[in-house]
Amino acid sequence: MTNISPLNSTQHLNTSIKESKDYSRFASQSLIPIVVQEFSVLANEFPIVFVKNAETGQFTPIAMMGIKNDFNLYCQTENWESSVTPIGFSKAPLSLMQTSQNSDEVMVFIDENSELVSSTEGEKLFEKSGEQTEYLKKRSSALLDLASFTQQTAGITKYFADLSLLTPKQLTVTLNSDTPQVNIDGVYIIDEKVLNELKDEEFLTIKNKGLLPLIYAHLTSLHQIARLITKQNELDKTQP
InterPro entries, alphabetically (predicted)? Predict the structure, then answer.
């Protein structure tokens, strides 16, 4: 259970955060939301696809970290083995929230029940004077950057959707010979046919906005599905 509280120097003067690459809290989450600023890096390891919110119709890019529902192949142990890490993995136990529904102001919150929170070890958040430490300033800046990236990502994915570039795709994955095929539904990809048939003006606008590298990183990343298949097959071999 989480215990989210506004971060302040009075209540959290002696609070520290332990740095950790234990991401096992995502063990049952195979689809990890990401931002467009990390497409080029994450595409070297994970398939990047899009999912659609059924209520709002908004699309979100995600990194696939598993073949089977609710099973993250990378987060089953405390050891993170990949050379690349989604930005969002590193924000815990801190988060940003609006001070009120009608305000654009945000505050830093902390999950006091997180295993990363300590009073005896780790990076301190406040000096004895109550001033923020350089560590907290750096973490707060990273949270603000991520919030900005998330907003930009929402705008870009909406732009793709408005151009009808996003198309639903059922991914059919064949694992070991004694395992039935696995169908992965509910994901969307950039439709290359639609992309190539865009009007010259629309294509040039995408180019001038600097969005072509994002599209190509996404399309190239789909080859990483083979990596997930290999990891799943290797895991299945160890199961009784």
Answer: SapC
